[in-house]
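cron nightly-structures :: item 1 of 1
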Amino acid sequence: TARLLCRPRRATRTRRPRGRHRRRAVLREVHIDTSGRANDMSPSLRTTASRLVASAATSSRNAPLACLRVPARAFRATGCSRSWGDEEDPSPGPTRWSSTHEDTPTLTPWVRQVISGVELLRNARYNKGMSFSDDEREKMHMQGLLPPAKFNQHTQVKRVMRNVRALQSPIQQHLHLVGLLERNERLFHKTLVDHVEELLPVVYTPTVGQVCKTFSELFTRPRGLYITARDKGMIHRIMKNWPEKRVKLIVVTDGERVMGLGDLGVQGMGVAVSKTMLYTAIGGVDPADILAVCLDVGTNNESLLNDPLYIGTKQRRVTGDAYDELLDEFVEAAKRRFGERCVVQFEDFSNANGKRLLERYATQAAVFNDDIHGVAATTLAGVIASGKKTRLAVHEHTYLIAGAGETGHGIGEILAEYVARDTQTTVAEARRRIWMVDSGGLVTRQRAEVEEDLALHKLPYAHDGMPECGTVLEAVRAVKPTALIGVRRHKHSLRVGALAGPEGDAFEGYREDSAGGVAGVAEMSTRSVEERGEGGDKKGGKSDGRVQSGPPRLFTADVLRAMGENTKNPLIFALSRPEGIAECLAQDAYDATDGRCVFASGCPVEPFVDKTSGKQIAPRPSTSAYVFPGFALGLTLAEANRVRSPMFLAAAEAVADLVTDEDLERGAVYPRVARLREVAAHVAAKVASKCFEMDGVATGSSPGKNKQSHERLVALAKKSMYDPAYRCYM
C-alpha cells in the first residue's frame, strides 16, 4: 500500500498554508491497494509517500482529523487516475491504472481532512457539545446544528451528574456514562476525574460485573480488538487494523474468570474496557495509548453456548498447545506492532493460566496480572499503613491466609519478599512467618508428604511444627497469627472443606453456577418455602415465601475473638467479594475484638459507630485501583521493557505513605478514593525510580539519584497525565 498526501492534481508538492491555519490545512491521503504489486512502483514514489505519511501521522494526533471514504469517481476527478510514476517507467503500453486494462486492480481511496460541521459533532474524540464558542461554530460550519446556548465544561459535568443521579439502577448509570464516552470522550473523563469517589463503583466493580452478565444484549459499539482462535497466523494483521500506532498499554482478557462470575467468554471484554477507563481517569494515560483486547477462545458456559444473542464464538474453550500458541503469537504481534515497551496487562485469566502465563512471558515482554500483582500490592500497602496502629512492622506479623489459590499465593509472595528485604534474609526464611489454609485445612508439611495432588505453589508454605487443622478456627488457635487475610474463594471452596464454613463441612445452600463463578452464590442462596399460617414461616420467612440461606461467614465471632486474644490490635482483611461471600463484616470484627482490630474489606463498607469507643468507623475497600493505574504510568515514564517484583513493593510503599493519621483514626488503611489521581502520580514516581535503579529495564532518561529525584518524578508524572479539559480549535 502506497500513501501520498497531495493537493488535487498535484502529486508531489503541497503548498504550505500560512499563519494560524497551517495546522488545519485540508490534507488528502490516498491509499492505493496494489494487490501485491507494490514493487512495480518507482522508488522515488515510495520514498516520497513514506516521508509524507510519517509527517502526517505526527501532526494528526493534535488536530481534529478523521478518515472519510470517498467514491472512486471523486478520486478520478482529481486527474490522478494514471500511475504517479509512469513518467519514470519507459515500458510501452497502457499503465497499470489505465481504465482500458482488462484486469484493473482494486483501488481504495481515502481522504484525510479537517472535520467540521456534523462530522465534528459525531466524533467523540473532538466533540465538545454545547461548549463550542461562537467563533468555532461559525468557522467550523456548525451554525444551526447546536442550540444557541453555550456551556463551559464545568456546567456540562454538573448536568451529567444530575442525569446520572436521577437513574436508580447502577447498570443504567453505567450505560449512561458509556453512552457519554461514545459521544464526548473528554467530557466523560472529566466527569470521572472530578467525581471518581462516587462513580468508581459505577464504572468498575461491582457494577461492571453485572454489565458483563448481559454484555451481549447491551452491546452497542465495539471498543477494542476481538481476536479469535481461528485468527491464528493473522494476529499481527488484525492489530494493524487498530488506527493508533503508539499504543503503550494493552489490557487483554480471555473472559474465563470474570470477577468471580466465572466463564463469561467474550462478555469479559466489559471488564477490560472498564480498566482502560480507569487507566485514563486515575492513571492519566492518554486514551489513544490504551487498547483493550479480547481473546475469544470459546467458552464452557452452557447458557452462553445456547444463547442466540451471544456475540462470541460458540465453541468449547481452546486449551493445551493450541491455546499457548495463540498467546505466543499475540505477545509477539503486540511487540512487533507497538514495540518492546508496550505493557501487556492480563485480566481475568483462570487460575490455571494466570500465573503460568506470567512466568512464560516475564523474560519476553513487559507483562503483569492485576488479579495477582495488583491485589497483592494493595494488600501489602494496607499492612504497611496499619503499622502505626498495630505497633507491628510487616516483618513482625505472623500471617494466616485463608485461601491458597493464586491470589492468596500472590499475597504470600509479596509479603515474603518485603520481609526478606527489610530483614536482610532469604525469601524462604521469610515464608516461615506465613501460613495458608485451603479447602483441606491448614497447609502443612505432613499434608504435602501425604497428598500427591497438592498444588505446587502451596509447597513453599507447607511448614512443619503444627498439628492438623481442619477449620480456620483451629488454624487460628494453633498458629496464633496477628494478621488474618481472607481472599477470593472459588466455587470448590464453597462446596465443602475448611473454606466452606466454620465447621469445615459442606454448604448445603450451594448451587452450581453455569458460569462456574462464586459471585452469584449470594443471589442464588435463597430457597422457596411453603407459607404456613398467616404469619409466614416460623423460621423467619418473608411474605414472598423466600428465606435467606446465604453461605456462612468464614471468620465467625469465635475466630475473631481468638484473633483478639493473639494480639492487642489484630489485623483482619476480609477481601472476598461480593459482600454475600465476604469472610466477615466490618462491624462484626469490631464487636468481637472490642474495637481493637484494624479492618479492611474487598467491598464498600457503610460507616458505623463502634460500640466500644463510640467513634464513627469508615473503613475503605481494598481495591487494586490504588495500584494498577499509577503502576502502568510509571512503566511508561521509564519506558520499561520488563516488569519485576521490586516495582510492586515500591508501588505498595507509595500507597501506604499517603495514608494519614486521620485516615487511621477513622479505621481506614487506604487513602481517600478522591485522591486516587494523586496516589497514581506518587506510585508512578516510585515505580519509575525503581525501574531506573534496575539494570536493563528502563530505556528512558533517568532524572538522577539525588534527593530531588522523587519530587521531580512526581511532578513529571502529573505533567504527563492526560488532561481531559477542552482544547480551543480556533
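cron nightly-structures :: done
Residues 1-14, 19-41, 65-102, 524-549 have pLDDT under 50 and may be disordered.
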